[in-house]
Structure formats: C-alpha cells, structure tokens
Amino acid sequence: MLKNSNTKRIRKQMVAIISVMLILVTTIGYIAHFEVYAEGTPQTAQKKAPIVTASSYMVMSGSTSEKVTSKHADRKMQPGKITMLMTAMVVLDNMYDESELKNTVETGRTIAEYGETFKEGEYASVGDLLNAMLVGGDVQAAELLAKYSASSRDIFVNEMNSKCMELGLMDTLFTNAGGRYDIASYSTAADLAVITQAAYRYQRIKDALAKKSATIAVAEKKKKKPREIEFISTNPLLTGNEKTAYQYIKGGILGLVDEKVNSAQYAAIATKDDMQMIVVLMDSAKENAAREATSLFEYADTKVTKNTIVKKGKLVGHARVRGGAITNVAAYTETKGFAYVPPEGSDSLIQTQVAMYDDLTAPLSKGDKVGEFRIFVADELKGTVDLIIKEDIPLGWYPSRFYISNVGTIVIGSILVLLLLFLLRVGHVKRRRAKRREAIRRAKIREMARMQLEIDEDRKRRDWDATGYEAMPPRTTDIRKEAINEEAKKSGKKSRRKK
Q1: For labelling, which of 43, 261, 391, 449 has a CA lying 20 to 30 Å from the CA of 297?
Q2: Cβ count within 10 A of residue 311
Q3: What does the pLDDT look like over 387-398, one tens digit per residue?
C-alpha cells in the first residue's frame, strides 16, 4: 500500500511540473508575440516573397543602394529600352548648359529608317526629343539625340560604355542608343538597377519619367506651322489601374525586346515614406510587368533597411544664385536620407557631403533642385537626397550678375552714399580751414601793412633820413667821449714839446 501511494504521489508531481512548464512556454510565446507588435513591427513582416514569372529581376533601394531581393540578377540579357536611360544621361552630360535643350536636330535619311515618328527633313528640339524618348520610348528620338550629342553613333556608343565603367558596371555593353535588339549588346538586372538609380539623379530625367504623356512639336522647313505629336507613357504603373501602398509618382520605362515574343525589360521607380525603391524585370510578360513590379515593391517594403541619416526639410547649406534678387539661398532636404551598412560593417563607415550646384541662374521657383546631400558608405556613394529651395528667386538688379543681391546692393549703395557724404564733409571742412588760414594770413598781412604805414608816417613826422637814422645831435655820452679824446690829444702834444 505504501508503494502504491508513493507512485501516485510521484505521478501527480510530474503532471503538475509538466503543466507548469506548458503554461510558462505559452506565456513566454504570447509575451514575445505581444512585444513584436508593441514595437511597431508590421504584420506584413512575415510576408512571403511573391511569385515572379520574369527570367530575372532585381529590387534595390535607390536611397541606400541596398540589394533587397533578386533572382538571377547577374544573368546577361538584352537591356531593351532601359538603354534609353543611359542615352539620356550621356546626352545631358555632353550639354554645355540647359539652353541647348532649345537646339533643333534634323532627321536624316538613315534615322528615318528606324521608325515612322519623324520624317526625313523634319526638325525637333533636344528637349522634345528627350520627352519622346523617356516618356514614349521612341527609338528614333534616341538615335537623333545620339547624332546631336556626338559626331557619330559609334562615338556616342563608346561614351555610353565609358559611363558604365564610371558607374563600376562590368556586365553591361551597349551597341546602340535606342535599345534595339542586338546580339552583341547585353546587361544584367543588377547593372540596370544601378543605371536606373544614377539616371534618376538627373532632374530632367526625373521630371520626364513622372509624366503620363508628353506633346512635342515637329517642324519642317517648307511648313511654317509645326505639327504636334503626343506620346503616352510606356510605364503601366502611371497609366494603368494598379493599386498599391507605394506612390507611383516617379515612373519608369518599359521596352519590348522582340515584338515577336511578348517579353519586356522593365525598370520602375517608386517611393514610400521617402524610401525610394527600384525594380528591374528582365524578360517579363508585358501584361504581367505592372502586377509583378507592384508585388515586389510591397514585399521589399517589409525587408528594406530604414536607417535615417538626415530628416526631411533640414537646412544643410546655402546655394549661390547668379542674377537673382537673392544670391545666397537656403537649401533644404526634399526627403529623408537613409543609409545601409552591411552586417559586417559599422556606422562609422557612413559619411555625408553637401554638394551645391555652381551654375544656378535666376529665376528659380520654389521646390527647384539646387544640390545634393550625398551619403557615402566606406567612401562609396550609396545614396543622394535632393536639396531644394523653399522660396521663389526672381531676377535681380544688374549687380546680381556678380552675386550681389538686391539687399546687398541697397546696403552697398547706402555705404557708398555715406562714404561720399563723409568725403564731401571732409572736403568741406578742409576748404573752410584753408579759407580760415588764408583769412588769418591776409589779416596778418594787412596788420603788417598797417603797422608799416604807421612807421612810415611816423618817420615822416620825425624827418628821418632815407637810411632810417634820425638827424639828431650827438648824445651826451658821445660828447663826453669826444672831449676826453681831445684832452688826451692835447696832453700828448705838450709832452712831446717838453722833450
């Protein structure tokens, strides 16, 4: 009986211990689960990677250069019309200033064979051709820009490949400016993501990619009135009905590689909470490009590192503006700035730099870009934040051409007026003192003349001779001296006689 009672007691104790352990495990799990959501981690943190039919893709943070997710990103394939982003960068790099955007380019016979948009002998401005290429993906526009920018197409293509070398891209080779199919040209999703990131730093490209449509003017020598051509954006995220948490206001470029097969190379840029994301799809079905890009954007939002370096709207410096009413304008960050440091690195590798444009000319509008806030990791540029102004800068007065603002002109003018008045006052005082000294000198001369006149009159009254000595009898002392001398002479004569 004793043994049975001990066995029952042991069993009860074991059941109690196991029950307590189960309760503790459940409680700890619940607390951990609660803490995760208490810290603000979104429920989408456990979201699974989307299924993408593209042969390869790359999702990269345009703000930090972090490679968020990818599939066969190093596989070499046709770059397609994403090539046009590189074409636009090289054209803008070769321009002297923005006034060249108004220059016109003539369509030659060779370029007319690349499409039907522009006819032989027609003219279009460089700015319109950029819009036709970046908004509508027009191949003829790309070839015309290459012709304008370089003396030959081969030289322009060499400049494109040199730009790739500058960006550190070793798996890309371009053979034409329009992204036409060529067995010798190739690139990868990883390289094209870097090209998209670099292109988006150009304000002109950035503005064009955000347009849903663009209308350009094409002129002909014999016709006075130019004809207009409207281009609709090739980016389905701008023109389609895809809905997502991301704000697709930035745009992208879609290009068919081969019209015989319904495949496309697609690069898109999107922004959420100031974090810029880039998606590049290679050999994606055209009808799936927008949907797959959307799913990748939303998936990457749960994976990307958001380490804020600089806040939005922060004053980081001043930019010089030539010809403006204000020539030294405050520059603010347009968005937040982020940085990504690999797990093996440390935050000490992060460096920042403020780079202001040195060719700013008035007038400028509120929101215009005047520089960049650059973020480096281990001395390598990883991201940039646009610097903008928060006020309009109208044209200034003539001195503003020499970076003297209107207020500065007023201050300098006031100082010059005061200095002139001071100099005039000093001159006036000097003249008064000179007149006073001259008056004193003349008074002294008059006094001396008066005294001399009195002396002369006194001399006349006293009958002075011409030598100035008065004809008066000798003084008594002189008479005595003469008498003594006479007595001495007489005594001397008497003594000589006695001898």
Answers
A1: 261
A2: 11
A3: 999 999 999 999
Which token pair is 59? Answer: 């999702």
Phi-psi region of 118 (alpha: psi -120 to 50; beta: other; left: phi over 0): beta
Residues 52, 31: Cα–Cα separation, whole Å: 36
**CATH architecture classification, 56-306:** 3-Layer(aba) Sandwich (3.40)
Return the closest-CA partner of residue 227 out of 84, 111, 121, 102: 121
What is the reported pTM?
A: 0.73
| pLDDT confidence tier of residue 250, bands split at 50, 70 and 90 | low
Cis peptide before 474 (omega within 30 of 0): no
Q: Would you say residue 449 has pLDDT above 90?
A: no
258 CB contacts (<8 Å, ≥6 apart)? 181
Quote the tokens at residue 5. Answer: 């009672």
Q: How many CA atoms lie within 13 A of 18 on its CB side?
A: 6
When the pLDDT of each residue in the chain is averaged and rounded to a whole number, the result is 83
The CATH code of domain 315-404 reads 2.60.410.10
Contacts of 252 (CB under 8 A, 6+ apart): 196, 209, 235, 237, 238, 266, 267, 268, 269, 279, 293
- pLDDT band, residue 450 (cuts 50/70/90): confident
Supply the pLDDT for residue 204.
92
